[in-house]
Design a protein that fits this description.
Distance between the termini: 16 Å
Strand content: 15-25%
Radius of gyration: 13 Å
Number of strands: 2
Largest sheet: 2 strands, parallel
Number of domains: 1
Number of helices: 2
Length: 72
């Protein structure tokens, strides 16, 4: 699950690391199968939808406002 950044222009290295963990789509038991990306706004949602093809794993999008990660 991701929280707190938006995969902007300076976050390509994070996408590359996620793709290495996903092993570029090869079917192996210990790979990263999916990622959950939190969005706050319609603009965030549009951005993630536009870049989702860059990920070599399944992308799930959720409303970040609904998660209380800072209130534990």
């Amino acid at each position: 699950m991701t929280f707190g950044f938006n995969f902007g222009e300076y976050d390509e290295h994070i996408i590359e690391a996620i793709n290495r963990a996903a092993k570029d789509g090869r079917k192996v038991p210990n790979k990263l199968w999916s990622i959950y990306i939190g969005v706050y706004s319609d603009e965030d949602l549009k951005h993630i939808e536009e870049i989702s093809h860059k990920f070599k794993c399944k992308v799930h999008i959720y409303d970040a406002k609904s998660v209380n990660v800072w209130n534990v």
